[in-house]
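Q: My labmate handed me this sequence with no annotations at all. I'd like to see what the chain might look like in three dimensions before we decide whether it's worth expressing. Could you predict it?
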Amino acid sequence: MKKSILSLLPFFLLVFSSQTMQGQCHASFTWEQIPGSLQVHFHSTSTSEHDIVSYHWNFGDGHEGHGSNPYHTYAEPGTYVVCLIIMDNAGCASDVCHEVHVGATGGFQSNFSIDIDDEGIVSFINASTGTNEHTVWFWDFGDGSSSNAQHPQHGYNVAGEYTVCLIITDTMEQRADTFCLTAEFPEGMISTVHSIDDAFKSIWYTNPVSDELVIHYEMKQGAVKWLELYTLQGKRIKLQQLSPDGSGLRTGAFDMHDVPGGLYILVLRHGAGLASGIVSVIR
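A: Here is what I predict for the chain of 283 residues:
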């Protein structure tokens, strides 16, 4: 029996050593599609206690690449499983795979890239195409937080892998498009941004809501002409025309009894543009 245990000892040491080395390096990456093309720019965000000496990419379409931040052009739109394998100069290896959606070029298309500063604040750079003054934005940061700013910033309470989605909605054409990106994000400060243009002094409303959505607003100039409520898919389900007369604090309301639970986009449209917000309906 003693001989049998000793004969297995090198195996146990090998397993322990491999697991320890694996913990010293970690493969991760982000990506962004170049607007108007099928080209994707990949960014390694991998970490190691030693120098990373090898980056091997499998782009999911039969092609491979090397380097920390390669570009790759796909032959057609679609969803591809992209994998990165790294190795450092101490022999530690790590790999990671993500599903990468490559959207069609041109037209009404959601897209964005990310930038992370030294304090962990993530800036989301909106690169959507085909948008106009009737477009509203909905960001799902993957941690239960959201924003309807065009170029929001966000910080995560807990570092980790999150899937972030941007839904763009054309409130005039009643159409929508979605782009999602999965990446490793560090812990950072929390920052909340709301979409409100210079024509408003203030906007606030009941949220979450069950029976009645009440909106209070005050304009610096002009007047709100329409209150609108949209699904995230761009379908308008509520519309209320307002009197352009009057100044100071104004109020509007929607009866929400017939609206199913979920997230919706509230739009206040005035002569020169619009402001928008996210409404959560509780059932």
